[in-house]
Amino acid sequence: MYFIGVDLAWGLRSPTGVAVVDGGGVLRYLGVAGDDDDVADRVRPFAAGECLVAVDAPLVVANPSGNRPCEAALNRDFRAFEAGAHPSNTALTWFADGGRGARLCAALDLDLDPRSPAPRKAIEVYPHAASVVLFGLDRTLKYKQKPGREFTERRSELLRLIDFLEGLRTADPMLEVSDCPEWTELKASVRRARRKSELRRAEDPADAVLCAYIARFAASRPGDVTVYGDTETGCLVTPTLR
Prior knowledge:
With about 240 residues, this protein is of the alpha/beta class. It is built from 7 helices and 7 strands. A 5-stranded mixed sheet has the order 3-2-1-4-5. Strands 6-7 form a two-stranded antiparallel ribbon.
């Protein structure tokens, strides 16, 4: 079985991170994709058989405005940690036709019900919320580009994420990233980065690794995840906040 993480960009011109973890918890693939076809082509070889694909992007968007019910419910739990989800609705251009996440899952013929026994399915995840639980954070890591956020802070926070992910080698379930050459290069690129653009190139694959781990966690410990929302209006799956 493969656990596939996709940090899916909302726009076709922005990079999408793709990571694949095998059934033993070893990172087997890490890369960056472009348009819809490129993303599907990178995922498809690993999604031909039993798989769980964790996508950081809305997979079901049916509401004409505001938040989806799953976003509103997750926000009630995680807003205090600065980990609230952004609203998704069909009034936004990205979701007028369902969105990239829906297209990807349709192209790969994945079941979108998190509770389904289907051997090949996809779940929507939100790495910020998951990181709060998995890493015991008081607030989310601040490595994303935001107005007023300095390079040094972003680099430091991205290195923290890298350290946290490497620390999952002793977690339940475990994750082993150190044998993946692309991971080694990602870590080195952040350490030697001097510009924000260099950090931006590393964010997406790092987030994809976290997505893949969330998939493995959800499959290994179903009693320790919360499914917000429903299949008609959209579901968000994340490790349970205790």
